[in-house]
User: Fold Glyoxalase-like domain-containing protein from Micromonospora humi.
Amino acid sequence: MPISADTHVRLARPSRDLAAAERFYAAGLGLEVLYRGAPDGPGEYDLVMLGLPGAGWHLELFGGAALTVDPRPAEEDLFVLYLDGPVEDELVTGLERAGGTRVSAGPYWDRWGIAFADPDGYRLVLSTRTWSND
Assistant:
């Protein structure tokens, strides 16, 4: 089957502390836990999948005792959400209370949104812009 606009997307990232990462994305950002799993065999990890019910994407965080790779976030490794309007103060406060740290994501994103580092150092950008693929 070819890739289409209906193709589902999973963004997977390792996490040193799944509970802290889940708190950031669920309690702070407002994503829901769609699935939680524990290792069922060799080479498997604890994981949590977060997203919005019915959406064509989700964020998978994996870690636990079997984790063999450390998270390696880079400054340009961004998870951008286009909000089509101002970022509400309550959302900013919630992300900070849930373990997020406000950071700069460079002049472009600093102009068009607010960036946070999650507990593993990956960057989330809440963009005030509207998504357009034009």
Summary: Residues 78-127 form a domain with the 2,3-Dihydroxybiphenyl 1,2-Dioxygenase; domain 1 fold (CATH 3.10.180.10). Residues 18-28 form the longest helix (11 residues).
